[in-house]
Amino acid sequence: MNDQGIKSRPSYRPLSLDRTGRRHLLVCDGTPEAGAFAADTTARDFDERWTISPPLLSGFAGDEKTGAPSDRMFRGETELLARLDHRLKTEQIGLRLYATGAEPFLWRVMAVAAEAGMGRDEVRLFAGRPGPRRVYCNHCGAIAEGVVANVATCPGCGAALFVRDHFSRRLNAFAGIKVDAEVPGDVPAIEVLYA
Amino acid sequence: MTIAFKPNESFRPPFAYSNSDAGILRFPFPFPSDAYMYSVNLEPHVRGGPTEAFSAVFDVDEHYIAECRERDLVLGQDPKRCLVLPHMMSAQWDTVELIMESLAEDYPDLFSLERDGDRWTWTNRPLQIRDAFVFGEANSLPCPPFEYITRQAQGDFTLQDQRGGDLFMDGGMVTTQADWSLAFDLGMSFHEWHGPVPLAHEAGVFDRALQYLLRLQYGKPVRRLNWTLTVNPRLDTSPENYPNWGPDKTTVTPANVGEKLHVRVELQTLFRLPRSNAILFGIRAYLASFAELVRVPKWGRRLHRVLRDLPPELVAYKGLTRYHTTAVDYLAGFDDGAATTFGIAPESGLQEG
Amino acid sequence: MTMQAGLNPTPLKLRVRAIETLAPRLKRLSLASADGTALPPPPPGSHLTLTLPIDGGRTRSYSVVSPTHERDAYSLIVRHADRSRGGSAYIHHHLAVGDLIDSAVPTSQFSLHSLARKHLLIGGGIGLTPLLSFLHALQIRGRALELHQICRADEADAFRGLLEPFAGPDIHLHTGRAGLDLQAILSRQPLGAHLYVCGPEPLMTAVEAAATSVGWPASAQHQESFGASGGAPFIVRLARSGRDVAVGEDESLLEALEAAGANPPALCRGGACGECVTVVIDGEPDHRDHFLSVDEKASGRLVMPCVSRAKTALLTLDL
């Protein structure tokens, strides 16, 4: 079973400032990887940077008025997204949002941005080399997290799911279809693809 | 017009389905020539076409009652086969108006619509429905407007929201689909939704189709045909139920291919909706078995040639691999090599079955 | 009606039910269905393309200002243009109650964005007309909105009257451009706001510049242009037939082509839909459309005849 070269898979470009915007907020789920930024861009070019700090650190920095753009650190993704939701709903037009990190993180950020009315041209996302996937089981609706292979086991119904390249931005997941529906037990060799 | 409905047909095991002779002759045979390639192939959707299936805005045929019952069964098992995003409410009402007006106009013996301002009364005689409601007030209908009316029409429907120079699939009633998931695809842009179709993207087919549809005008709907093959007369060949129908593919043998294998044609229609400026996409599925279709000699010859020469990528994409050879071998017996006329219409009457 | 029988471009027969003078140069028309059948519902932002008995029969488009739920008649507001190309002059001086007019079905190239969290409407003069239909829809749907309408002082009463049904803190009428601080208005809008502009070219250009300066995303800016405003006359050469056609200062390139019997496909007649795009073989186009990309305009190889003109005395088209 193969996936015919699906064209709906999102493609990402290293981040650079969208000069049509007036304020630029960068959010990351950790330290941005090498290659997250375009050749002429560094993290310091953004007006603000939010990131998720290692668990040992608490609170957030950036309160001092040093004149430099501020950094905020969050204890976890939930806190960052909640804060982002509040911030975007009180923001004015002209903001551009940037996100880098694991692919599922990016689309959670996008969901918060869409909820605040931001369009696709106000948000830029970058995910590096393909990482673990969320997979939506088409048969029972459950989501398998952290999938790294071409076949995943559905946590809801136990089906062996072929992991497609067809991606839903709304569900933030790749489609999974029972790989042995036609001939039960006829499961292809497992290949690790997205570690 | 009187239609001899077949209300007790079944599109799931135990199957009970067949086309009458008239049903075969009105079938929207999808191949106008002996070779097939994916294309946009849109034409104006006017009343009238190469077979009777093109005569009405929304075609009602002998399977109407049974298909509505099948839809009800699917929804009872899986309500997420009808989903509409919240911002599409005016498109829902546009759909109610379009389908009710069309059915009442095309089949006055079966449907009627009385209107007094916003107070509408809808009568559907085949399904024995009579409902008075207030147009625009969702509470006055027994279920949301889009679901309400598409439960009374054959075929699937999607609602495409036009914004940002794109069309987003933001709602649908999808119970008779050829293997795509509404729950998964809901909200996708035009290119994302069509992502899985091979080859066509390179040819720019979807770029041109999108540009054309963005300029679709109210009162000037368009249509096209799409096709695949289905084992057994199943309407619900959804990804959701793939574990149910997937095994059917391994049950085709030279002895049963004529009865088991069906040509599944989608008569796709596209309407600009007035209030919402959205597009209603109708996907009307027709099924006829190989044994039925070869009773039209031209169709027997052509079906053989199209399937025999189908590019491997399309064989794979349409899911025909397991039984492709068996199908072509069976059809070879109905192809004497004679020339066939261009176009869909049968050249002659039916041979005996 | 659900479907046109055949492909008649002007399937509606309308009768002039009323003509009302709102100001010396502003008239409101009510066009009813000639045979009493319900008219197609007009989408917000839609326009009617009427066939008027000028120059042997020409089409002119006007925005529908009546709400979508009114099916017995359409309301239009027509301003007598300072340099009328015949349409508004005819309507102001010759059209009478009872006259019959052929019309196309209302079509919209200018529509409300379904996911906008707020709708900011800016209109200049007669550009208010599509915005009026937006106001009806937004009011019914209960959406957040803000409107700024600029008009001449001598027409203020008329425009105040038109805005009366929607009066409130979010509706602003400005006489003249002087008191209008576009920068301030635009910069205070929330994320998710969409901008809709309709009016004379200088206003549209000024709003676009202000929107750009505050970082308003392109996908949230929407414009309706009311077509060619005329310009210097020039010659258009039809390369395939070798004919030369004069384009007068008061007619659009498209109109001159149609009068000469060359009929490129056309739809919106406002530079937005792309239907009339034509290949340029020689000469330099004067682009006034909103369809071609920056690169396409710079290349000079394509032109939209419905609104654009020529910078050179001769423009050769692949027609």
Q: Low-confidence spans of chain C: pLDDT under 50, at least 5 residues?
A: none
Task: Estimate percent helicity of chain B.
Answer: 25-40%
Give the class of chain B from helix and strand content and strand pairing. alpha+beta
The ordered H/E elements of chain C are EEEEEHEEHEHEHEHEEEHEEHEEE
Would you count the extended β strands of chain B for me? 10
**How would you sum up the global shape of chain C?**
globular
Shape of chain B: globular
Binned strand content of chain B: 15-25%
The number of helical segments of chain C is: 7
Q: Classify the secondary structure makeup of chain C into a structural class.
A: alpha/beta
Summarize the structure in short.
Chain A has 2 helices and 10 strands. Chain A has 195 residues and is α/β, with parallel strands linked by helices.
Structure explained in plain terms:
The complex is a heterotrimer of chains A (195), B (353) and C (319). Chain A has 195 residues and is α/β, with parallel strands linked by helices. Helix content of chain A is 13%, strand content 28%. Chain A has helices spanning 77-89, 103-115; strands at residues 23-28, 48-52, 70-74, 95-100, 123-126, 133-137, 143-147, 151-153, 160-168, 173-178. In chain A, a hairpin with a 6-residue loop joins strand 8 (151-153) and strand 9. In chain B, strands 1-8-9-10-6-7-2 form a seven-stranded antiparallel sheet. In chain B, helix 11 (297-308) runs antiparallel to helix 13. The two termini of chain B are 26 Å apart. Chain C folds into three domains: 11-104, Elongation Factor Tu (Ef-tu), domain 3; 119-224, Nucleotide-binding domain of ferredoxin-NADP reductase (FNR) module (Rossmann fold, 3-Layer(aba) Sandwich); 234-317, Ubiquitin-like (UB roll) (Roll), CATH 3.10.20. Chain C has helices at residues 87-93, 128-141, 156-163, 182-187, 201-213, 253-259, 294-299; strands spanning 12-23, 26-33, 47-52, 58-63, 73-79, 100-103, 118-124, 145-151, 171-175, 193-198, 221-224, 234-238, 243-247, 278-282, 285-286, 302-303, 309-310, 314-317. In chain C, the strands form four sheets. Chain C has a six-stranded antiparallel sheet with strand order 4-3-6-1-2-5, with helices on one face. A five-stranded parallel sheet of chain C has the order 9-8-7-10-11, with helices on both faces. The longest helix of chain C is centred in the middle third of the chain and has 14 residues, at 128-141. The radius of gyration of chain C is 20 Å and the shape is globular. The mean pLDDT of chain C is 89. Chains B and C meet through helix 3 and strand 6 of B and loops of C.
